[in-house]
Write a structure and sequence with these properties.
By secondary structure, the protein is mostly helical. The chain contains 2 helices and no strands.
Length: 83
């Protein structure tokens, strides 16, 4: 079978860069909704903690928010990040 200029075999199958017949897209499109959901969960947690416990306490609220962000980021880098 010969290849045309647009990297397709003449039977219609696409070929990958290294010549194999499986063409995998590594765009990470599946991880974008997961990351958006993770950020929404982070914001909801911060707002809930602020309203429930630290309504009129600025410095305690700031410290708690920084702690929550650090915990969420540590969890993300430990369990959810795909390298």
């Amino acid at each position: 079978m010969r290849r045309s200029s647009n990297n397709e075999l003449h039977d219609g199958r696409a070929r990958g860069i290294n010549g194999d017949e499986s063409l995998e897209l590594e765009t990470g499109m599946g991880s974008q909704p997961a990351a958006a959901l993770y950020i929404v969960l982070l914001v909801a947690t911060i707002v809930a903690i602020d309203l429930l416990f630290f309504r009129n306490q600025f410095w305690e609220r700031l410290t708690a928010n920084i702690g929550i962000v650090l915990v969420f980021s540590a969890f993300y880098f430990r369990f959810l990040k795909r390298s």
